Amino acid sequence: MPAVSVIMLNWNHGPWLVEAVRSVLAQSFTDLELIVIDNGSTDGSVDQLQRAVTDPRLRLFTEPVNRGISTGINLAIAHATASWIALTDGDDRSHPLRLELQLKALAADRSLDAIATDAETIDQAGTVTGRIDSTHSPEAIRGQAPFGMPVVNPTLLARAEWFRRLEYRPAVRWAPDYDFVLRLLEAGARVGALSLPLYSYRRHPHSSTVAMPLAHELGTCAIRLAAARRRAGRPERIDEAFATVDARLAAGMSLGTAFRLYADDFRAEGFPLLAAFHSALAQRVAPSAGTKLRFARDLIAAVRADAGSWREALGGMAKGPFWLMLRRAGFPVQPRY
Questions:
Q1: Are 5 and 86 in contact (CB under 8 A)?
Q2: Distance from CA of residue 237 to its chain's centroid?
Q3: Considering 222, 232, 234, 277, which has the largest number of Cβ atoms within 10 A of its Cβ?
Q4: Across residues 59-82, what is the average pLDDT?
């Protein structure tokens, strides 16, 4: 039985799949299996992979049709045999030391259940174009998660028991990785990240975050709302949340309008800080006198709800969750994790 099961989903990643697979099989840590689920590809990528790679550590499973990201990942989890599972995408690549350094960090801090890394961004040709930093300390990751994805998800290496217990949810059609990480943290897992770019995240026109950015953003908002309901001890109503996403996508609304409507949703359900967060997002992407006023009102309401008095509210503006909320909304505030 290998020490690590690396799981990869492929759907028409023909130009990059072989490179992605080879980057895993070339890891300095060799006691691994690579499970590739082909999700009904039609571009010949499976044939390319079978011709190019003969390493026995590769286990390839094919589906006749695309069954979605969550179902595909769950199939890979079901095939995994190791006690640790690492994620990776079929159009990205891992640094040769990625798994070795992640496992060393887990051995050094046995309280951790999962660890991610930073990443560099690359274009279709593999040229480095930028960097994405995870949040690094477990405490900061937990604090940041309600506002947005705290780690670069395809770099995650976690105990297999967590993947098997929580799985990915097919009902979450957009940003299922964010939903998984939120539920992982809510279940009590301790997650950290290395401040090293050990992964190359490829941006190209066919990736979901590039091809359908509005759907991805609205799905993320719906996940935040469902998670807020769970934390408040209420039914999360995930199907309803994604029905709202579908309706707002069908209406053809702008991102600024969508953020404003989600601010209204959070405000109506009694989540003032998240209402302020979405008002801040609306002000960032579609600035106007109206969005600025709504953001100011929501921020004051959020601070007052947390502080309990105007004097405490004025002091609270410069610390705690409010600075974190502003930073996640894209405002240049400190501290930076």
A1: yes
A2: 20
A3: 277
A4: 96
Per DSSP, the three-state class of 232 is coil
Contacts of 228-236 spanning 24+ positions with Cβ under 8 A = 228/146, 228/266, 228/269, 228/271, 228/274, 229/269, 230/186, 231/146, 231/186, 232/270, 232/271
193 to each of 64, 69, 99, 133, 150, how far by Cα in Å?
A: 36, 24, 12, 9, 10
Query: Which residues touch 154 (CB under 8 Å, ≥6 apart)?
Result: 87, 88, 89, 92, 119, 177, 199, 201
Q: What is the pLDDT of residues 51-61, one digit of tens each?
A: 999 999 999 99
pLDDT 10s digits, 192-249: 999 999 999 998 666 655 446 889 999 999 999 999 999 999 999 999 999 999 999 9
- Count of CB atoms situated within 10 Å of the CB of 308: 11
Its pTM surpasses 0.85: yes
44: Cα within 13 Å, side-chain hemisphere: 4
Radius of gyration of the chain (CA): 21
**Residue 280: partners with Cβ closer than 8 Å, 6 or more residues away:** 295, 299, 325, 326, 329, 330, 331
Helix (H, G, I), strand (E, B) or coil at 54: coil
E strand or H helix at 264, and its extent? helix 255-268
List where CATH 3.90.550.10 sits in the chain.
4-208
Q: What is the pLDDT of residue 204?
A: 67
Q: Which superfamily does 4-208 belong to?
A: Spore Coat Polysaccharide Biosynthesis Protein SpsA; Chain A (3.90.550.10)
